[in-house]
Amino acid sequence: MTTTxxxxxxxxxxxxxxxxxxxxxxxxxxxxxxxMLGWRVNVTEQGVLLPLGPTTTALVMPARIGxxxxxxxxxxxLAGPTLVIPxxxxxWLFLAELVALLPAQLRSPSQIRFxxxxxxxxxxxxMTPYGRVRWANAPSFSRHWLPPFTAVLAxxxxxxxxxx
Length: 164
Prior knowledge:
The model is unreliable at 1-24 (pLDDT under 50). The chain has helices spanning 27-36, 63-75, 149-162; strands at residues 42-44, 47-51, 56-62, 82-85, 91-97, 113-115, 120-123, 127-128, 131-132, 134-137. It is globular, with a radius of gyration of 18 Å. The relative contact order is 0.24. Helix 2 (63-75) packs across helix 3 (149-162). It has 164 residues and is of the alpha+beta class. A hairpin with a 2-residue loop joins strand 8 and strand 9. The strands form three sheets. Strands 6-3-5-4-10 form a five-stranded antiparallel beta sheet. A three-stranded antiparallel beta sheet has the order 1-2-7, with no helix packed on it. Residues 1-20 are annotated as: Disordered.
């Protein structure tokens, strides 16, 4: 006699990634998903905003550097939420966790900018004059942590120095 057992069912949202577009979704549903991740988002006339806090920062860089940084972070299993911000020269924004105080004169390549509290960042499905903000690497309900700022910066420095 053979018996079979069914694998335990995971909730439908356990491995689901948030959409990188809002087709068929309301802003309210998208905001609810962000809040399920523990993100305190706001909806304003500018769009859906994530205020950066004392332990959250972002690194912004040109798309050509950002795509290589994301590939390297994925290879190291450190890829966190990454946004594509449309502009005349598209930028990528990497969310990261501050695990230590930043030195007052932190050195980084000129192409890489830091965004920190009290600033906010745009989240999908916000529309800009140049197009919709979208995810290059979306958060998911099973993997919504942020990588350490120092790891993202180290990879960005390496990629930027190799691209000169």
